[in-house]
Amino acid sequence: MALTATGFPGRLVGRPDGSNRDSPVMRIVNAVLGDATGGRWQVVLDYARVLTESGHQVLLLVNSREVKDELALPAGVELAKVRNSGHYDPLATLVAWRLFQRFQPDVVIAHCSRSLALLKRAARGRAPVVGVCHSNNVRRMATADAHFNISTHIGSMISALTPSNHPAYHLPNMVQFDPAVSYVPRNFQQTPVIGAFGRFDPVKGFDVLLRALGLLRDRGLSFHCKLGGGGVQEQELRVLSEELKLGPLLEFVGWVRARQAFFDGIDVCCIPSRSDAFGITPLETAIAGVPQVLSTADGHRDMFEDGVQAYFAGIDQPDELANALTAMLTDSKNAQIMAQRAFDRVKSRYAEPVFRDNLNRALADVAKRFGNHR
Prior knowledge:
There is one protein chain. This protein is α/β, with parallel strands linked by helices. It folds into 2 domains: 27-174 and 351-369, Glycogen Phosphorylase B (Rossmann fold); 193-349, Rossmann fold (3-Layer(aba) Sandwich), CATH 3.40.50.2000. Helices cover 39% and strands 17% of the residues. It is built from 12 helices and 13 strands. The strands form 2 sheets. A 7-stranded parallel beta sheet has the order 3-2-1-4-5-6-7, sandwiched between helices.
């Protein structure tokens, strides 16, 4: 990654035990004081683990109302919980300030706008606060001292809102996998299985998928669909399935706990999201070797090219989604070619070693710039 910084580490106390030997070891606060569920929480944990394994001292700062499961925390990460009620909670700011007085961070990483607002006030200019925006709603993240942008689309929006002396770095999410893994082609089952999973929320677009399934059925295409997940839209989706008379063609399988087992049981993965900044699921799907049909959400278009590594369908367009699924299901040879291209792309661009080097390099640059300008 070429650093595209434009403007700031504290104390530099050595070098990490990682592949980037020029990066300093630092004390880093990694914070999510707002929503800590789904893909965002996974990314927060990835940051904590990668930073700790790189030799940094990491304080994971979370909202006590949001994070309950501490068993999933990476080894060596210190956990602190701050109860807070919003972006302008003075008591939470004071608690965070006291934590900073003890921990003396070199850099603070904020994974949501609430974290950014509270921790900017708590840091009081003594350490740079880096914003990591996990959605296309970037306005409240513009006040960060620096930005780690997970997609080019987010980077463009951030650059339009921030001063030119605030450095920004393109730092896409990573996916964890065995570096020795290789692509293994596989034939479609006699009745091809379409798979989709995630939180049952309108933003995920599963209602669009169900309408596309109805069109596939009307075209006489042979298929079965496994839909995994749960959430606020579950009853709505079940009612829609009945209205479309999908019957045994659609199977609600509950939350997907073992993703590899789910991937092993499907032939095509469909991700019809109405919005996706840069999700992890398409990366996991690619490493699993499963062909995929995606929406034209900004994050998907950052990852892959239409007709090269995946097929794309317009957001909220069930007819386009049905066409893409038809093309995938009726040409298994081309589907496997695209799946291998997606696998190769993810392995070369979004593997953990690539992410680790880019993250350490960006942090070192932020720390150096902040030390030179405060």
